[in-house]
Structure formats: C-alpha cells, structure tokens
Specification:
alpha/beta, seven-stranded mixed sheet, five-stranded parallel sheet, 46% helix, disordered C terminus
C-alpha cells in the first residue's frame, strides 16, 4: 500500500465515526459489513483498497470533501501497482508510434514544424517553445519532442494540446484516431504517475523569476499581497519561481496585455482564496483566463474556514503556515508540474521562429486574438452568474464559453437602399452572430444598454474560433471608436494604433481580406467630431468593399445625413414578456432570491396596478405601466 492510500484510510478513521462510515459505504453502493475488516479502522482500510482497485477513489473523495470540507483530502493515486506501470510503459511506446505516424507528415520541414507548434502553444503556453529542440530529421525530432513534453507535463496535457491542434488538418477517419489516441495517452500518463518524495533543497539557491523564463502565476486579491509574497518566497526554496508583478488596474488595456503575457509564460496558476476573492473581478478574470488556456490551476485557501467560490471545480488546498515542515508542503508540491529548466538558448524562440518572415504575421494574429479573447471574457463575465458550471462551457475548439444571463433578443434586418429605391421587406431573427456573419457588412443599431457591445463580443469570439482553426480565415479586429478622440487623427492611423502588433502592415492585411472589422460605438466619438468622422468611416469601408465589417451605434445617433451605406440590423426593444423572462432567468437560480422574488421585482418595476399581483407567468395579459417597462428594458 502506498503512503497516499495509508493517509486516506487514516483520515477516514479519524474524521468519520462508524455510523458515518456506513452511510458513506451506502452512498457508494458498497456493503459495509462485507468489507472484511475487524473494526472501523480496518474497514476504512479495506474500503480504500477496494475503491483503489475499482478506480473509484475520486467518487469517495467527492463525498468526503462535501461532508468534511475542513479536512485537507489528498488527491487519489492512479489505480494499479508496479506491474500496471510496466504495462503502461509498454502501451506508451505503442501510442508514441501511433502519434508519430500522425504527426510525421506535418513536421517534415522547418516551416511546417514551426507552424504546427506555434498554433499549439503560442501565446498561451509559449514557454514550452523554449524547451523543445526543433533540430534534426523527423525520425529524431518526434521521439525527442514527445519525451520533452512528457517531462514538462507528466499528465499528458501538452501532448493533448498538440494533438488537438493537429486534428483539423485531417479528415474524419484520422480525427477519430486522434481522439482515441488522446484518451489512451491520458490513461497511460495516469497509470505511470508515481508520487515523488518532496525535499527542500539544501544548498541550491532559491528560484528567481527572470524575464523570458517560465514561472508560476500567482493570482491574489490586493489585501492578500503580503501572503502572496511569503508564498512566493517559500516556493522559491523548492525550485518554483513565481510571478507577482501586475499592471495597474487603472489601465485596463495594459492590465489585459500583461496578464496575457504572464499566463503565457506560466506552467501553472496558483489562485489564493481569501475573504476578498469572491467579489474580486480581477481575480475572477485571471481564473477564467487560466481556465480558457487550460492551465494547471490549484486554488489555495488562506485558511481552512475560507470557502472556494462556486465556479471553481478544482480541489483546493489550505496554505501551510509559516515555518512548516516539508510534509506540510507535500500536497501542494505534488500537484505542481516540475519546474521547467531554463530556456535552451541554442534554440530559444528566435531559433524556433527560424522562418521569421513567414511566421511573424501568424504569431501577431495569435497574440492579438489571445488578448481579444481575454477582453471578451472580461466583458461577458459581468453578465454571468458564475455560480456553477452551468454557466461555463467549452467550444469545439477548446476555448472557454460563458453563458451570460441576458434578455432574449430579437433583431430586425433592413438591407441598405438608395433613397430613390423601393423599400425592401424587413426580416426578423434571433441568432445575431450567424445572421451578422451572413449579412457580412452592417451597422448594428439599438438603444443604450440593449446589448450591442455584448453582441459584438459574441461575434468576435465566434470569428476567433474560426480563425484559430483555419489560419486563412480573417482575423477579427475589434476597436472601440469612443477612444478616437484626436480630431486630427485619421481612422487608418487610429486603427493601426489600437490593434497592437497587427498595426504593422494593416493596409495590406485589409486589402488581402485577412481581417474582419468590428467598430464598436461610433456614437461615442466626441460630438463635435462626429460629422467628419462618420464620413471617414464610410469612405474607409468603401475602400475595402469585400472586407467583413460591422459598426455599432445608438439608433438615435444615426441620422440619414450620417448614413454609412450599410445594411441595418436593429435590436428590437424589449417587451414586458422578455423583461419578465430576463428577471426570472437571473433570480430564479439564486438561493437568496428565487421565483417569488423575481415576481415581486418584475411587478414593482413594471408598475402593476393591483396591490398584490399574482405571479408573472400567470399574468402575461395583466395591465402594466408600459413606459416603465420600456425604461427597465433599456
């Protein structure tokens, strides 16, 4: 029996009495009296061993963490012993051969090798690229690369990322082979896992975070900065350098950029959970960004009484106290990936990007889309309850998708026409993203707060998914026109200044159709500049008639003399029914509110005439104050 299994049954014996242990067995569909042990401690041991053989220890730990949240429950070891590990090693060699057959056609020359690995790891895991030796023939490169990825991430997560990137380049039969390979490889990695002894280095210097070197990313609230610095110093003694710096939160653009860079150079994320975490929107965004990039995330509670926010499904640990022995650090250190070695200068990123001229434009696209995705998460998270996993999903491409609580929208499409042309029939729809893509060029009109910016972020996220899967697809460029405040600055110069690294060669990119433009909030341009700048936008879009382009504007700020000669898509005003639906969607699932609170709020805001109105769904025809409903909808 391994030390981990021994520790598990000792915790059961210590924190559960015999009746509670019987209940635990009942919930696991196990007959307590048939376990075969003599007494509670022996039965706890037999239970752990049985669940280990059946691969069901995670089920038990889910229940024990719920019933004894104050206890630091360890992660379960994988099922099997030395014989199982030897079999897994043999299976690993077989799977490596299968992986090589699929990867070899895509890495035969330096250009294709660079392209595949940049798509897989840049910029979300760009530290990996510094660790791989890209030299050599295919037969030499692939086994060496596979082994390097195993050393950097023993759980197989980096292999998975590489294979998922490879997947779209194949047809249906090979995609099925890749899916099977990923599942089998993850099982092999789990079977080969061996808990390592943890020892504090005796003579080695503490690890130091250096520019360009991989680190741990520490996410913490402002009031917990002192604790974060202490944790970073403790981890440095074990060889883990930590990133603590952060951009000022007063500069949102700089903060997003620095957070994206910090996550890209991190091999794991430690999220310190204190009293402020549940309400700290910056920590929440760091967590979502790390989850989007599929980082190793380890929540650390600053004390045993602090609960992790509901959206975090990862098992949390309690921060060891000051000057604790090495055993107290073992649970955390064993969950961390091994510290990567320093970047191998002989083939650092400059050497990796050996096809610099050909690769640089794509790297710029990947970096820009990574930041745009972070901005999308920041915006949409404001309208997402994040009280459980129902609001968090993954797209087919693996990126994070939030499910915001917004009102059910309807849109009206009116094709653009000359003043002398016959009026074209309008068309209504609900799927804004699909329709805006099909319309190709449009101005999105609506009242303040009607969801125009949220719609643009949804559209941008969809375009990002397409552009990541297909490098030939246009890259979405989303710009807030409210920042265009210099009266003398041209639109071309403003765009070049606000799309980061894509500003270089922007004219060529637009002319070649390698960009899709989303101009948000044209009505937010300073009022005394709007007439001239609306005209600039119209002329600029006319220069690139085939480029996908969308502009958003308040409907009241889009008079006929400032028409952009684009189709109109108008967000229909909310009616009373959809306002009621929105309130119920938001409040019904919250434990402190519920359906009755939603009913009360709706009729209070809608201005019902009756003193004690019945529930909303029973009164869809009730008399309401329509002006107040319109005010609520806006």
């Amino acid at each position: 029996m391994t030390t981990t299994l021994s520790h598990l049954y000792q915790l059961l014996d210590q924190f559960f009495n015999e009746e509670e242990l019987r209940t635990l067995c009942f919930d696991l569909d196990i007959d307590y009296d048939n376990l075969g042990g003599r007494g509670k401690a022996a039965n706890a041991r037999e239970l752990v061993q049985r669940l280990q053989r059946e691969g069901r220890l995670p089920d038990m730990l889910t229940l024990t963490r719920q019933r004894r949240p104050q206890v630091l429950w360890p992660d379960p070891p994988p099922p099997g012993g030395p014989c199982r590990c030897r079999r897994a090693a043999g299976a690993g060699r077989t799977l490596l051969a299968r992986g090589q057959r699929l990867l070899a056609p895509r890495v035969r020359n330096p250009a294709s090798r660079d392209a595949l690995f940049s798509e897989a790891f840049y910029p979300a895991h760009d530290w990996v690229l510094d660790q791989i030796d890209f030299a050599g023939a295919t037969a030499v490169f692939l086994p060496r690369c596979w082994q390097t990825l195993s050393e950097l991430a023993p759980d197989g997560s980096l292999h998975t990322r590489l294979l998922l990137t490879l997947r779209p380049s194949y047809g249906y039969p090979e995609q099925g082979q890749i899916d099977d390979l990923i599942v089998a490889w993850q099982q092999v990695c789990a079977a080969q896992w061996v808990a390592q002894a943890v020892e504090r280095p005796s003579a080695a210097q503490p690890a130091v975070a250096l520019p360009g070197q991989p680190t741990l990313f520490l996410s913490y609230a402002d009031r917990d900065a002192v604790v974060a610095r202490r944790l970073a110093a403790d981890l440095a003694a074990y060889g883990h350098a930590c990133r603590l710096e952060r951009a000022p939160k007063t500069d949102n653009t700089a903060w997003l950029a620095e957070t994206a860079v910090g996550l890209g150079s991190s091999y794991a994320v430690l999220l310190l959970i204190g009293e402020q975490t549940a309400t700290d929107r910056w920590q929440r965004l760091e967590y979502l960004a790390a989850k989007d990039r599929q980082k190793v995330i380890i929540p650390i509670r600053l004390n045993a009484a602090t609960a992790a926010p509901p959206l975090m499904t990862e098992a949390s640990l309690v921060l060891p106290a000051v000057n604790q022995p090495v055993d107290e650090w073992a649970p955390l250190l064993r969950r961390l990936p091994p510290p990567p070695p320093p970047a191998r200068q002989a083939w650092a990123k400059e050497a990796w990007a050996s096809e610099a001229d050909a690769l640089r434009p794509r790297l710029a696209e990947l970096a820009y889309m990574d930041r745009l995705k972070l901005a999308e998460l920041q915006h949409v998270a404001q309208y997402t309850r994040l009280s459980g996993q129902a609001e968090i999903r993954r797209s087919a491409g693996g990126r994070l998708q939030l499910n915001p609580v917004v009102a059910r929208q309807e849109f009206c499409h009116t094709p653009w026409r000359q003043a002398t042309e016959m009026l074209v029939e309008q068309r209504r729809f609900a799927d804004a993203v699909a329709e805006l893509k099909a319309i190709h060029r449009a101005v999105l009109l609506g009242d303040p707060g009607s969801g125009k910016t949220t719609t643009f972020y949804k559209l941008a996220a969809d375009l990002i998914e397409t552009a990541l899967a297909d490098p030939s697809a246009p890259t979405p460029l989303m710009v807030r026109l409210g920042l265009w405040t210099d009266a003398a600055e041209t639109l071309a110069a403003f765009l070049g200044r606000n799309v980061g690294e894509l500003g270089e060669g922007l004219d060529e990119r637009l002319a070649e159709g390698r960009a899709a433009l989303l101009l948000d909030g044209i009505n937010e341009i300073p009022a005394n500049q709007q007439a001239g700048k609306y005209a600039q936008v119209r002329r600029f879009l006319a220069q690139y008639p085939d480029m996908p382009a969308w502009v958003s504007c308040r409907e009241q700020d889009y008079p006929p003399d400032r028409d952009l000669r684009l189709d109109r898509v108008t967000v229909a005003p909310l009616d009373a029914v959809r306002v009621g639906e929105f309130i119920h969607n938001y409040l019904d699932a919250l434990p402190d509110f519920g359906r009755q609170a939603a009913d009360d709020l709706f009729w209070q805001l809608a201005g019902a005439k009756e003193r004690d109105p019945p529930p909303f769904y029973a009164r869809s025809g009730a008399e309401v104050d329509q002006p107040r409903v319109r005010l609520l909808a806006g």
